[in-house]
Amino acid sequence: MKNRSRYEVIAAILSSCLRMETRTKIMYKAMLSNDQCKLYIQFLLKCGLIREVINSEKRYYTVTESGNKFLANFEKLKQMLPSILEGDMEDQFHLTV
Hints:
Elements (H helix, E strand, L loop, with lengths): L5 H11 L6 H7 L4 H14 L2 E6 L2 E6 L1 H16 L8 H5 L4
Antiparallel strand pairs: 1-2
């Protein structure tokens, strides 16, 4: 698997939260370690992109309106970028660092 940007990870978490999910389900769906998942969830809660729902002593997370806007804009941005950027930019554009 290629390395993902922070925004791609956030989008994966938000997508998994479109339905109310537990942290464990989010962790598996977004392919994160437990520690990574905890950090991202704390960050997304603080930013207001997800909210926590406690139901019968279980914690669930669901996406907020702001989170839905982030996902929509992220998808638009991905469509705007040329598909060539998904490959190795250095090889495609003969760049040297």
